[in-house]
Amino acid sequence: MTRLHDVTLAAQVAQLCAGRLAPGELVGHYLDRIERHADLGAFAAVTPDDAARRVAELEEHPPRGPLWGIPLADKDLVARAGVPTRYGSRSRVHHVPTASDPLAEAMDAAGAVNVGKTSTSEFGLTGFTEPLIHAPARDPWRLSAGAGGSSGGAAVAVAAGLLPAAVGSDGGGSIRIPSATVGVVGLKPSRGRLPIGSGFDSPDGLSVTGPIARSVEDAGFLLDALVGLAPFTYATAAPGSGPFVDAARRTSAPLRVGTTTVSPWDDDEDIRLDSDHRAAFETARGWLDDAGHAVTDAEWHPRGYAALFHVLWRASAAGIPLTQEDATLVEPLTAWLVEEGRRLSALHVLDGLAAARAFERRTIADFAAFDVVLTPALAQAPQPVGAYAGHSPERTFAMQVEYAPYSSFVNVAGLPALTLPVTTDATGHPVSVQLVGRPGGEATLLSVAAHLEQRRGPLPHPPAWDD
Q1: 87: region left, alpha or beta (phi > 0 left; psi from -120 to 50 alpha)
Q2: Average pLDDT, whole number, for the chain?
Q3: Which CB contacts under 8 angstroms, 24+ apart, belong to 367-371?
Q4: First and final CA of the chain: distance in angstroms?
Q5: Distance of CA 322 to the CA centre of its chain
Q6: CB 118 within 8 A of CB 20
Q7: What are 163's strand-pairing partners?
Q8: How far apart are CA 243 and CA 273, in angstroms?
Q9: Residue 241 pLDDT
Q10: Containing H/E element for 25?
């Protein structure tokens, strides 16, 4: 029997618009599932009363907007008027915004029904979602393990069938790390692709908004909706719908595919690619070769990356508005990052930004011979809940790099990237790879990813899916 959460996002939208499915029925189904699986830690807050009012409003009018009637949630970094927005921090436990961020307003305009807040790390600063303010986001395949971060709650909600899809943000892998951890599709768009969360609106240009979905087609569908949210001039393409989901539905012509297991952290951290992630990488490489693509090793040997990224990450934390009282409530890693960031001189920050732009130019030039570059998504299996606790800030940072050494360089280079599961380990847990595209190359990524997804075939769902 097909259940509502078995139906794809694109098919749900079609059924809603055709009147075969009512928003209240769909939203109620997911709210029931969210309540039943609260132990996964996917949500920082659930707002059923607000959702009910929104459903009543939508059902009085004909379908409007690409996401009409679809239940979605804000990441707990997105302010929504009247809804507690805590940024994963005990320093914001009583914070209720009086105005909404542009992304929340735009999702409403697209017709979505907000059902709450997905959990995130404190201020989105880490690649794991275990904030002290509430329970950790857990890998639905292995509840003793964390879900990655910082969009960990969003990825868990999609993987466990608590949402049909989700919108996350990615400043160093925060969409792709949790998506790869729990076995869903995570897409980081090019810098400047989207009108909201473009990357141009952050000083370091790292953080962009993007989709998390169960399938490549749904990721393309949601990307189309995000591209069309508002006619801001930051977008690199005119707003519209259709081309990205179309790319996910067609087979690409033979392409030039580069492959590499090199990480820009290799010279500075102890990066070890485990056997499961190496096997997934080699499997995807073989499938692409079998499909007729020209698959070759990418000659890429980045240098000096760790120094520039340490500057960018500290600088990004420096602007978090913390009072003296707040500083006693935030987590030790946050306090350290903010303090370190505020110690940076203007010259130090400018030098870091200049080094980042030089790295961007070199990386784009090194990858110019390829339409797509294949890398591992992660280097290690999902880490146990609490694995990052009790260490020095420097060691905690290094542990995150050892887990996900292939993520942040894509943000610095401003490139699009997509992670998707291709194999499973001995326990049945999905293992993912990453595809990196040219600037503005999301359509090619989706087409190649769709081929890998088709070649892989259906994956099992985590236990919560059938509960």
Answers
A1: left
A2: 95
A3: 367/258, 367/298, 367/300, 367/415, 367/436, 367/438, 368/438, 369/256, 369/258, 369/298, 370/255, 370/256, 370/257, 370/258, 370/298, 371/255, 371/256, 371/257, 371/437, 371/438, 371/441, 371/444
A4: 14
A5: 26
A6: no
A7: none
A8: 35
A9: 47
A10: helix 23-36
Please report where in the chains the tokens 């950790």 appear, as a residue: 136
- CA–CA distances in Å: residue 390 to residues 262, 386, 393: 30, 8, 9
For residue 261 the two structure tokens come to 């297991």
The three-class DSSP label of residue 434 is strand
Residues paired with 113 in a beta bridge: 71
Active site residues: 75, 150, 174
| Contact (Cβ atoms closer than 8 angstroms) between residue 298 and residue 259 | yes
CB 69 within 8 A of CB 113: yes
Per the listing, tokens 């940076």 go with 344
In 189-274, alpha helices (H): 216-227, 243-248
In whole angstroms, give the CA distance from residue 302 to residue 297: 15
Query: Amino acid letter at 291?
Result: A
Burial grade of 49 (CB within 10 A; 0-12, 13-18, 19 or more): exposed
398-428 pLDDT per residue, tens: 999 999 999 999 999 999 999 999 999 999 9
Task: Look up residue 433 and give its amino acid.
Answer: V
Strand pairing of 71-75 and 113-118? Answer: parallel
Reported as a single tens digit per residue, the pLDDT across 421-463 is 999 999 999 999 999 999 999 999 999 999 999 999 999 999 9
CA pair distance 298, 320, nearest whole angstrom: 38
Q: CA-CA distance, 382 to 462, in Å (whole number)? A: 14
